[in-house]
Design goal:
Layout (H helix, E strand, L loop, with lengths): L2 E6 H9 L5 E2 L2 E2 L1 H16 L4 E5 L6 H4 L14 H27 L2 E3 L7 H11 L4 E5 L13 E5 L4 E3 L4 H5 L4 H13 L9 H10 L4 E4 L4 H13 L3 E3 L7 H4 L2 E4 L1 H12 L10 E3 L1
Parallel strand pairs: 1-4, 1-6, 4-5, 6-7
Antiparallel strand pairs: 2-3, 7-8, 9-11, 9-12, 10-11
């Protein structure tokens, strides 16, 4: 086997379910048709790769975090929520037929009762990256963190390809690891800003316009003056590992004591590499 095409089953099924309604008698079929059409395109485009469809199970995340995606299960109230619930019911009535069709076509399927599709995708990529070519087909941008040597992400809904070579041009970040850091910071803050000048960003942290600042791959002359401003204003600065090697490592985390600590906790849970490049302000 030269490689694999890992297909995010629910992502592609949801996209197919949002197309023009089709039916046979009372049975909706548009999600079935759209899913198989996407599969056919992938099979022809990446004929040298073996397609594998990954399905969501009941995630282990619900055990650790009871509120995980809890808003998706609340009774619909608005017109939008009612429409979403109806679409969800339509897809549910077609999912079994999609899986049955894949079985008859001989397409491999992977599902575990306590895992989302993201989990086996990550395990498969970790085991095979660099040894086999892997194409990730999903509309879920969380999968972009898996991009690496021989691993490409493709969103057929938006016709968007992301590889190590194109990620900066397409998403404005230097690497999948920095993309993941940005995603983590988005979840931990009220918003991110990027001015492109570390000196200005650090000055704005000192002035209170920004709550915190994170950046990699800086030169000493980018950092020195801003570090003094933040410290003189009573703020805290360190490199991404919490040490005082900002000028040597070229990375910086800045903010007041509480925010500085929170940023380090978030970033160190994602990345230990102080050599990655890019910047975000919170």
């Amino acid at each position: 086997m030269l490689g694999m095409t890992l297909i995010d089953g629910m992502s592609i099924a949801h996209a197919a379910n949002s197309t023009k309604p089709l039916s046979v008698g009372d049975q909706p079929t548009h999600a079935i048709y759209g899913f198989l059409r996407t599969l056919r395109t992938a099979a022809f485009t990446y004929a040298q790769l073996t397609p594998v469809v990954l399905w969501d199970g009941a995630s282990w995340r619900h055990t650790l975090f009871p509120d995980y995606k809890s808003s998706r299960n609340k009774p619909p109230e608005t017109k939008y929520e009612v429409a979403q619930a109806e679409n969800k019911a339509l897809l549910k009535s077609q999912k079994a037929y999609i899986r049955k069709a894949l079985k008859h076509l001989g397409v491999r399927q992977i599902a575990a009762f306590n895992l989302e599709a993201d989990d086996p995708a990550g395990l498969i990529v970790r085991k095979n990256a660099g040894r086999q070519r892997i194409m990730l087909i999903s509309g879920d941008k969380d999968w972009i963190q898996l991009v690496g040597q021989g691993v490409t992400w493709y969103d057929p809904i938006r016709d968007l390809h992301i590889s190590e070579r194109t990620i900066e041009a397409k998403l404005g970040v230097k690497s999948p690891k920095v993309w993941l850091e940005c995603k983590a910071l988005m979840g931990a803050t009220s918003g991110l800003r990027r001015t492109g000048a570390a000196a200005i960003d650090l000055a704005w942290v000192a002035a209170g316009r920004f709550d915190g600042f994170v950046e990699h791959d800086l030169k000493p002359w980018d950092l020195a003056a801003g570090l003094i401003l933040v410290r003189e204003a009573g703020g805290y600065v360190s490199d991404i590992n919490g040490a005082q090697g900002m000028l040597e490592a070229g990375s910086v985390v800045a903010g007041n004591q509480t925010i500085h600590r929170a940023l380090l906790t978030t970033l160190n849970g994602v990345s230990k590499d102080a050599g990655e490049k890019n910047s975000v302000s919170a």
